[in-house]
Design goal:
- Helix 3 runs antiparallel to helix 4.
- This protein has a seven-stranded mixed β-sheet with strand order 2-1-3-7-6-5-4, sandwiched between helices.
- Strand 5 and strand 6 form a beta hairpin.
- It has six helices and seven strands; from the N terminus they run H-H-E-E-E-H-H-E-E-E-E-H-H.
- With 203 residues, the protein is of the alpha+beta class.
């Protein structure tokens, strides 16, 4: 949380020593004075989002798996209107979407406006947030080189759907569990299984 485990350990040790010796005011002062410094170090160490390179022809891909099999379509208009029927699972994969695209996608899925803001803002830390209806996750795909490039991936899991938003330098269909046309098999087991398949490759 503070940029390195050593900083966190030292901070905890000093605060604990001050608190256990009865100097609660000293402990509070230490936290208030050192935490901004530690947070600044964490922010400076945060990887910058890789510049988006939108693919030609748009970058919103919709995969629908139901009793009829797997269908792959393009564009926001391909997202089925909710609520989705039982037996249907969909995956919306948005590659470097525009603000209008993000607004349209989140509206179609009934997502909170704050999720749209998180997606557009970028430079998030890795996180997971659980609400009554959705699970929002931010992960990073690392491209090892000099320097190491971290590409942000925003993920939202909802009732019968999975949304992934990322830049064009990461291709989820080339990840281990989705290669060779395996998407239909994975998505048939539900969007939560697709989430596992993607996260398993990243971590």
């Amino acid at each position: 949380r503070y940029g390195s485990s050593r900083i966190a350990w030292k901070l905890a040790s000093v605060v604990n020593a001050a608190a256990t010796s009865g100097r609660c005011a000293v402990a509070l002062w230490i936290v208030e004075s050192l935490l901004p410094t530690c947070s600044a170090k964490a922010r400076s160490a945060r990887p910058a989002r890789y510049p988006a390179t939108p693919p030609a022809g748009g970058g919103i891909r919709v995969a629908i798996r139901d009793a009829a099999g797997l269908r792959e379509l393009d564009g926001v208009g391909a997202i089925p209107p909710g609520p989705l029927p039982p037996g249907m699972s969909i995956w919306i994969d948005a590659v470097a979407p525009s603000p209008d695209d993000v607004a349209a996608i989140t509206a179609a899925l009934g997502l909170h406006a704050l999720i749209a803001e998180d997606i557009l803002e970028g430079n998030q830390r890795s996180k997971i947030e659980v609400t009554e209806d959705h699970i929002q996750i931010v992960l990073f795909a690392l491209v090892y080189g000099d320097p190491i490039v971290a590409s942000e991936i925003d993920i939202v899991l909802g009732d019968r759907f999975l949304l992934t938003v990322h830049d064009a330098d990461w291709e989820p269909r080339e990840t281990y569990h989705l290669r060779g046309g395996a998407l239909g098999t994975v998505l048939a087991r539900g969007p939560d299984h697709l989430l596992w398949a993607i996260c398993d490759d990243l971590v």
